Amino acid sequence: MGEKSDVLQGTLDLMVLKTLESMGPLHGYGIARRIEQVSGDALVLNQGTIYPALLRLEQRSWIKSAWGTSESNRRAKFYTLSPIGRRQIEEETENWERIAATMSRFLAPSN
Amino acid sequence: MDRIRIFLSRCAAFFVKQRLDADLDEELQTHIDFAVEENLKSGMSPQQARTSALRAFGGMTQVKERRRVQRGLPFLEVFVQDIRFALRQLGKSPGFTATAVLTLAVGIGANTAVFSIVNSFLFRPLPVKDPAHLVVIAYQDPKANYPHELSNADLQDFQAHSEVTSDMTAFLVNFAGLSTGKRSERVLVTFAKGNYFSSLGIQPALGRLFLPREGETPGADPVIVLGYSYWMRRFNGDPSIVGKSVDLNGMPATVIGVVPKTFFGTFYIVESDAYAPLGMFAGSGGSPTLLTDRKDRQLRVLAHLLPGVSIQTARTSLQLTANNLARAYPETDAGLQMDVIPEKLARPEASSASAWPLIAAVFLGLVGLVLIVTCVNVTNLLLSRASIRAREMAVRSALGASRLRLFRQLLTESFLLSTFGAMGGAAIGVGLMKWIETIRLPGDAALRTSQPFDWHMFLFVALVAAVAGLLAGLVPALRATRTDPNDTLRETSRGFTGSAAPNRLRSALVIAQTAGSLVVLIMAALFLRSLQRAEKADLGFKPDHLVNFTMDVQELGYDEQRGVNFYRQLGDRVRALPGIQSAAFAYSIPMGYYGAGLNALWSESQRGLPANKVTSVRFNMVDADYFRTMGIEIVSGRAIDDRDRSNTQLVAVINENLARELWPGKDAIGHDFRRLSGDGPDIEVVGVAKYSKVNFIAEDPAPYFYVPLTQNYTSVRVLHVRSTLLPAEVVREVEAQARALDANLPVFDVMPMTESLEGGNGFFFLRLAATFAGTLGGLSLLLAVVGMYGVISFSVNERVRDIGVRMALGAQHQNILVMVLRQGMKLVAAGLALGVALSVGLSRFVAGLLVNTGTLDPLVNTGTLDPLAYASASLLLVAVAALACYIPARRATSIDPMQALRTE
Question: pLDDT, tens digit, for every residue of B515-542?
């Protein structure tokens, strides 16, 4: 499957937040790779699309960014979960579960 | 909360765009570097590693663009971009830009000038306390259809019983002689009730103002307050003037204070030089009965309505009091109808309340039309430009610009044009205002016209500019962005521009524009025609070779005996001068500023009728030589002459209209009538004079009568001198005689009668209206020419190939000329038909509005279809339009067919 699927906006945001929650401060490439690894082959996304998502989250002050140095001694921009963001994860998770539950009820074979 | 945070972060980002761009570039570069590094580790070649990293990332440019949009304020950024681009585009075609901006500037300028006049007359509040609730209270004379002033006695009753107003004050405006030591000069004085300043909330700039109890007794409280400008002009702003004594009409009065600079009095069009209590006017002989006589109605009444009280409620409430007065004083107050008018509408006088808003509406309508014509013109220019730019639009659209984006871009261009136009227009408007300020009424009371540019004006200009930008730009922008880029690109490559549709639209616009211009031209012609009619009309007297001198011996404190002697001596001396044919004194000048009030007349058969059931007539007081000097014909009987003395039978000369009204079908000579209360002495009619105009240059003939000055004293008189000399010589000789009798007497309004007729009741407003309408007509004609020329010459350019083919096939120059001219004249003909129809409808409509304003009807003589006005305006437009078509038509004939075909 060469086609890359569009990912729901909110979904990507939540993935980024969850990644930062479990991995701690991380740069954009790291976040993208982590999402790819976790989702396996199920989701192939353009890595670039996480940058608009990162800006969105930053504008809401859910994450913060700062230039730092990676393990390989490369200068990179690191993203950290802010206290507001940490609180938001819970809410967003609930939100997502509600949507997922609704969707699965729709998709369940009716009889 | 989130939204605010996002907005703030966006605002912040707007100002650090470059840094953020660099930041993002670096971050994305790092991203790729990480990916390449990892790919290399997994064993790819450097080339492979890079390609794979980029593929995984996706569209780099899209990400950057999305970030940019998301990051800053895209609307503002695009706006700034649009403006920059529009400026560049306009700069590239200076010819088009200059034409469009100039056209708009003219249209907006005309609107600014007219609005600023309307603004200063109708919208600007008086600089007094609570101007919004300020009203003028007047009484409606059942005989005349305009409101009048009140008498002090009635005012006191209204004051005592009013439940709708918080206060009530009154004033009258009159000339008076003011002298310090020897020099006396004529000043405009507001004589006011004691509570005048306190109820208007005016604080003195110096000293004190009137006390509420001052001025209720004739001659008591001899105090005077100076106007700010007059204080500056006459006393150089000297503060020590307070406490000094001056003479007002020969009566000593103490200067007690100066009004603030912003207060100019309440007679809107002229600034008062001084303020004195009403008692000073009554006491100094102006009108001894002013304070007590119910019939002596001279006061303009101002009041503040209580909060929540409507005009209608106030009128009803005051009418109840008026009804009681009518019962208590049937002799004087029967049929008293009260009127309450917002102060803004009663400027300068209550009697003009219905006229000014209409005049304002007529002229605002005319300039509005000019603005529309202007916008249509610019629309046409933009349409022509759009078809030249069709290719540019198509390319931009093909490159991914959305329709909305292009639309915004084009609209930005037209708004930019109208903004520049508005700047130019404001400048033109201010220039026109400066010019209007230089117009002076004949006479020495300067009109108060200096009006600063206020926020009303600013708002108006901004609004007009916005409307103009939208009107002019909307259609071209919609049209230019609707085209399919595919078609356009294919078409233009074949060198064939424009389908029939935009041409049809442009033609329709030219028709609309021609029609609009014609309407303005016809209105201008109607105004000019009514001026012409007034100039040609028979005045009933002969104004040539007459020179007027006005004087008021009251200003020197003369009593009646001294006054009579002075005037008799002056008359004798002047008549003895060489070159003088005759000279006569009178109280009022025809079409002048002094006029005797209405007098109720009782003929013998009407004795016993209440005042509102009999004829009310204006009159003049004249001396023996009056009719001969003025050239007014006596139809029967005799003129007033030397036989009429203070101790002989009271006599009058009446005009033919009064004779017809009082004694229809009979000879009036020998009959008598009474005036004022009806119990006065009998006045015998000794002569009947031909009708002559007296109040207003365009008046309808009305009854009028003349009584001898010997039997009716007045201290103010005009001396009419008829002579064969040049006016300047007459002036020198007569003034020398007046000085010889009393060196201190000011003689004013010295001018030939012909010049005096140019005054406010004479030709002034007719001429002003004609000048203004004529200017607008000229403007709209110019716009019509520009529009017509633009469209025809553009269509010739578009049809170069077509014309080339025709000529190659043997068409003569003549044929081409006729073809192009016919195209233009067809549009003109359609425009003419539409314009005439519109004008007829419009003038019917305006005439309908004017039914109840007798004074305006002659001014805007639109009620009747004036074929000459219609024909001359149409002919002028056709001639000028033909010329505008002829020039491009000539160019069309000079097209070289070979060249036209080869350029393909």
Answer: 999 999 988 888 888 888 888 888 999 9
**Residue range(s) defining the domain that contains residue A65:** 9-107
Confirm whether the ipTM is greater than 0.90. Answer: no
**CA B532 to chain CA centroid, nearest Å:** 21
Number of domains in chain A: 1
pLDDT reported for residue A45: 76
* DSSP-assigned states of every residue in B558-573: --HHHHHHHHHHHHHH
Q: Please indicate, yes or no, whether residues B602 and B483 belong to a single structural domain of this protein.
A: no
What pLDDT sits at residue B146? Answer: 57
Distance CA B357, CA B351 (A): 12
Residues of chain B scoring pLDDT < 50: 492-499, 852-860, 862
Cα(B177)–Cα(B190) distance, rounded to whole angstroms?
Answer: 13
Asked if residue A20 is part of any domain, the answer here is: yes
Split at pLDDT 50, 70, 90, the class of A55 is confident
Say yes or no for a CB contact (<8 Å) between B63 and A49: yes
Structure tokens at B490: 């294919």
Whether residue B773 sits in one domain with residue B743? no
Is residue B141 included in any domain, yes or no?
no
Is the CB of B67 less than 8 angstroms away from the CB of A72? no
Last residue of a domain, one of B72, B95, B112: B72
Spell out which residues of chain B touch residue A72, defining contact as CB-CB under 8 Å.
Answer: 37
Tell me what pLDDT residue A47 has. Answer: 85
CATH of residue A50's domain is: 1.10.10.10
| CB-closest option in A33, A61, A72 to B5 | A61
Please tell me the distance from the alpha carbon of residue B882 to that of residue B880, in angstroms, as a whole number: 5
Domain that residue B714 falls in: 546-756
* Residues near B188 by beta carbon (within 8 Å), at least 6 away in sequence: B173, B174, B175, B267, B270, B271, B272, B273, B274, B445
**A103 belongs to a structural domain:** yes
Kindly state whether residues B42 and B90 are assigned to the same domain.
no
Which pLDDT score is estimated for B493?
A: 45
pLDDT of residue B904: 52
Report d(CA B634, CA B624) in Å as an integer. Answer: 13
The CA distances from residue B709 to B565, B734, B745, B748, in Å, are 13, 20, 20, 20
Q: Is residue A74 part of a domain?
A: yes
CA distance B331 to B295: 9
Q: Give the type of residue at B481.
A: T
Specify the pLDDT at position A1: 32
What residues have CB less than 8 Å from B462, skipping those under 6 apart?
B422
Contact B58 A49 (CB under 8 A): yes
Contact between residue B52 and residue B39 where contact means Cβ atoms under 8 Å apart = yes
Its pTM stands at 0.72
B334 and B222 share one domain: yes
What's the number of domains chain B is made of? Answer: 5
Same domain, B492 and B579: no
Tell whether omega for the bond before B858 is within 30 degrees of 0, i.e. cis. Answer: no
Is B326 a member of any domain? Answer: yes
Query: Of the candidates B756, B774, B791, which is a domain's last residue?
Result: B756
Chain A residues whose CB is inside 8 A of the B61 CB are none
- Is position B710 within any domain? yes
Identify the residue among B11, B30, B70, B71 best suited for mutation to test binding to A, counting A beta carbons within 10 A and taking the highest: B30
pLDDT at B856: 47
Domain match, B275 and B189 both: yes
The answer to whether B132 and B371 have CB atoms below 8 angstroms apart is no
Q: Tell me, yes or no, whether B646 and B510 share the same domain.
A: no
Does A43 contact B at CB distance below 8 Å?
A: no
Q: Do B35 and A56 touch (CB under 8 A)?
A: no
Find chain A residues with C-beta within 8 A of B62's C-beta: 48
* pLDDT for B858: 44
B60–A48: do the CB atoms touch at under 8 Å?
yes
What confidence score (pLDDT) does residue B494 get?
Answer: 42
